[in-house]
Design a protein that fits this description.
The protein has 503 residues and is of the alpha+beta class. It has 20 helices and eight strands. Helix content is 64%, strand content 6%.
């Protein structure tokens, strides 16, 4: 029975989630990204929030517009999602009304309420046209992350075997498996972009496919010959968005009797020609500039650039501006087979972990906060930082700032080693923390890359801990948080008791 236990556990999780979400009748759709269930609900009021957040295995809850999201973590979410979808399609909804949830111990509840208030205020600030556009662009790339991770790990395995001289006959097969998706990533970007911006997905993919078509090398623009792949994912994104707008314009003007013939033809023709004679050239220049800028930034800036990037990433997440980095990461991976930015930005999570450990050490009599940290720490080490951020550091105030300082020192260390010639990059986006190790790629091989990245994490942990321990609390704040009214450790609230938000 042992092989079936994980499957049974995931089915049990789905079965436990469904009634807390209001029953099958309240769940309209179930999808998932790398760490979250993304749910469309009929009636938000039917969700039993307190019980849902306290459910074992739930790392947090996200409310983002019309989407209700449950954070389960990588791996788990991909297995729970189909089980929940199956149950939602077959089990009748109970029509239960929300039931009062349990209350957290006083100190934890206060932090959770403050985290919720900060989350609400940030959501209001982030509802700007630019940030909403960044969200839509992020939605284009997020579904591609599993393939990027899988192909990235295979590419790392192929490189490792090649460096060791093992199984040379297997190298071409591994290269094909690792590179096939990347050679056609423009098509997938186009498909998702058209879908996100209101067009027909396959038409977006058809126009984006022009970017990687080998025959474009016979087309000349401004006296220069185009090359297959010129413009990369940025060109594909622009082409598909243009195709979506052209298609919508055509559908509003073409008679219904001719729509099936005229609209697809005009969409592909007009958007395709603009892509060939404009977008590919412009996007190619932008993509090249991004690659040169990243190389120059870390090659010359070194520790200073890493310090700034590592220290500002958490605030960028808070402002919703980190989503602009997703196409940049993808462009670097397509150009150079890795992104040098992600290992540095991952140091922000290390600073967060170090800060949480310092809070744990400074509050020996606060059972609720220490319970939250104990439960959230494993996820934080794997790069899932929302429970620590919204349940501990951000509501406390200063520990969030000191966590940023810890990330800055970790980023500065990795940036300095990059400047000294030990370039460390990631072959995919998505994972962070310890989960990033299988995706590392370095100028001197996997071993040195892992050593640099691992030492950077240790620097981030240590700096985040030290700065938070000595400067993370104002005068009298430690005594206040260590007050006897705090609940004992056995009554601690897991990180799932806190709703989280990520843009």
């Amino acid at each position: 029975m042992a092989p079936d236990e994980p499957a049974d556990r995931h089915r049990a999780t789905a079965a436990a989630l469904l009634p807390l979400l209001g029953g099958a009748g309240n769940v309209l759709s179930v999808t998932n990204c790398m760490t979250r269930l993304r749910l469309e609900l009929r009636d938000r009021a039917l969700v039993r929030d307190a019980e849902l957040r306290a459910l074992p295995g739930v790392l947090g809850v996200v409310e983002d517009g019309s989407s209700y999201q449950v954070v389960l973590g990588p791996g788990t979410v991909a297995r729970v999602a189909p089980e929940l979808a199956r149950l939602a399609a077959t089990v009748p909804g109970p029509g239960e009304e929300p039931t009062p949830g349990t209350t957290a111990p006083v100190t934890a509840a206060a932090l959770a309420e403050r985290g919720a208030a900060l989350r609400t205020a940030r959501k209001a600030r982030n509802a700007t046209p630019v940030k909403l556009l960044l969200r839509r662009i992020a939605a284009v790339f997020v579904p591609l992350i599993p393939a990027l991770i899988g192909c990235g790990i295979v590419a790392g395995l192929a490189g490792l075997l090649a460096n060791l001289g093992w199984l040379p006959a297997l190298a071409p097969g591994l290269a094909a498996v690792a590179s096939g998706f990347m050679s056609l990533i423009a098509v997938f970007v186009g498909y998702n972009a058209a879908k996100e911006f209101g067009g027909t997905p396959v038409l977006g993919g058809a126009v984006a496919a022009i970017v990687v078509y080998p025959g474009v090398d016979r087309v000349h623009v401004l006296g220069e010959r185009l090359s297959p792949g010129q413009g990369g994912v940025l060109g594909a994104l622009a082409a598909a968005v243009l195709a979506a707008y052209v298609e919508r314009w055509c559908r509003s003007r073409v008679p219904e009797a001719l729509d099936v013939l005229v609209t697809p033809t005009l969409t592909v023709l007009l958007a395709g020609f603009v892509t060939l004679y404009g977008l590919m050239f412009v996007a190619g220049e932008v993509s090249t500039a991004i690659g040169h800028l990243a190389d120059r930034l870390l090659g010359e800036g070194g520790a200073a650039a890493g310090f700034v990037l590592g220290g500002l990433f958490l605030p960028l997440v808070m402002l919703g501006l980190h989503q602009a980095l997703i196409p940049i990461h993808t462009t670097l991976i397509q150009q150079q087979s890795h992104t040098v930015l992600l290992p540095i930005l991952a140091m922000a999570g290390a600073g967060q972990v170090g800060a949480a450990l310092a809070v744990y050490a400074r509050l020996p009599r606060n059972g609720s906060v220490r319970g939250t940290i104990r439960s959230a720490l494993p996820a934080g080490l794997l790069g899932i930082g929302e429970p620590l951020i919204y349940g501990v550091s951000l509501p406390l105030g200063r520990p969030f700032v000191t966590a940023c300082v810890g990330g800055a020192f970790g980023g500065g260390f990795v940036g300095l080693l990059n400047q000294w010639g030990h370039v460390v990059g990631s072959t995919a986006i998505g994972p962070s923390g310890w989960a990033l190790f299988p995706l590392l790629k370095g100028s001197h091989g996997l071993g040195p890359a892992a050593a640099v990245y691992g030492t950077g994490l240790l620097v981030g942990y240590a700096a985040g801990f030290a700065v938070t321990y000595f400067f993370g609390f104002g005068k009298g704040r430690v005594a206040e948080l260590n007050a006897p009214k705090a609940a004992p450790p056995s009554q601690g609230v897991p990180p799932s008791a806190y709703s989280v938000q990520e843009n």
